[in-house]
Specification:
Elements: E1 4-11, E2 14-21, H1 25-45, H2 51-102
Antiparallel strand pairs: 1-2
Helix pairs in contact: 1-2
């Protein structure tokens, strides 16, 4: 089992040392970069707000976008499942009809 690897990320000009599973360092760095960008966007687009409030607002925005995408994916999965069930029923009916013709 691989040990977590400590890496340093920078958010709002503060360094954080984070334990990261081996092989996931790039993903964690990308996540930190995205969060940092979003925090600055919140701060630049709104009233002057504290760094902590900007971090919370940016995090909420990111999670909201994530959950919206999950809900879209789940909805698409339900539509595909429904289509597959309908197709399966039609195939079963066609097989049954073909067997009736053979008799």
């Amino acid at each position: 089992m691989q040990e977590d690897k400590p890496i340093t990320i920078n958010i709002l000009d503060n360094e954080y040392r984070i334990a990261c599973p081996a092989g996931e360092e790039d993903a964690l760095r990308q996540s930190a970069t995205l969060l940092n960008q979003r925090i600055y966007e919140v701060r630049n687009n709104g009233k002057v707000i504290s760094p902590e409030r900007a971090a919370v607002m940016a995090s909420l925005n990111i999670i909201h976008e994530f959950l919206t995408e999950i809900n879209k994916r789940d909805s698409q999965t339900e539509r595909v499942d429904h289509s597959i069930r309908n197709l399966h029923e039609r195939v079963e009916e066609a097989i049954h009809s073909a067997k009736q013709l053979e008799l």
